[in-house]
Specification:
Shape: globular
CATH architecture: Sandwich
CATH topology: Immunoglobulin-like
Structural class: mainly beta
CATH superfamily: Thiol:disulfide interchange protein DsbD, N-terminal domain
CATH class: Mainly Beta
Length: 211
């Protein structure tokens, strides 16, 4: 699905807002960080210990305040998509970020593709080595109402062993996975595509369910 926002959003971002948004938070020996708070919302990092293959289930929880929004991966011409960076020293790599279905907002000629309620973005991580894992990550998102404020926070998590039970974290991650759109089925999807030489026409061949 391609969604294009043609109307630009006006940003009012002062240097003081940027400085205030760089909020460092850290939690040691935990699978869930403390909340990092900003004027328009808050966010935190959740993770479980790596499995035998080094795979780590994690998620970024974002809670905009009432009336505020945060952006989807394709925010339009002027939005800020979520960005997550993990320091190489962590020995952990970010493989993928998954996204629940967003909403399409129209207000005063402005189009936004975003979330106006709490949203959890599942993260797929991989630990390079064996033994204890310490994640040092930075999350950068946009929080918008009448103005848009860049919101950045640092999170440090030291993960325990996979043998330990973490029901609260597991419930958060299961709910996040359940909120994702289902992948295309064998009888519904794009099977071929072609662009015309003048790049003005896109032709698609579709497989559709019977009936």
């Amino acid at each position: 699905m391609m969604i294009i926002s043609l109307a630009p959003r006006r940003f009012l971002i002062a240097a003081v807002s940027m400085a205030a948004a760089l909020v460092p938070f850290s939690t040691i020996h935990a699978e869930m960080s403390a909340w990092a708070d900003d004027g328009g919302g808050r966010m935190r990092l959740v993770a479980l210990a790596p499995d035998a293959a080094g795979k780590i289930r994690a998620a970024l929880q974002i809670e905009p305040k009432p009336g505020w929004i945060t952006y989807w991966k394709e925010p339009g011409n002027s939005g800020i998509p979520p960005q997550i960076t993990i320091t190489p020293e962590s020995g952990v790599s970010l493989d993928a970020i998954a996204y629940p279905v967003p909403k399409h907002f129209f207000k005063g000629g402005i189009e936004d593709i975003a979330y106006d309620a709490p949203v959890t973005l599942p993260l797929s991580l991989t630990a390079a080595g064996k033994g204890p894992v310490a994640i040092d990550a930075s999350a950068f998102i946009g929080i918008c109402k009448d103005i848009c404020i860049p919101f950045q926070a640092n999170f440090q998590l030291k993960l325990g062993t996979a043998m330990q039970s973490h029901p609260e974290e597991e419930a958060i991650l299961q709910a996040a996975d359940a909120s994702l759109p289902k992948p295309p089925s064998v009888d519904f999807g794009v099977t071929a595509h072609a662009m015309s030489p003048d790049r003005k026409t896109l032709s698609l061949t579709l497989a559709l369910p019977g009936g």
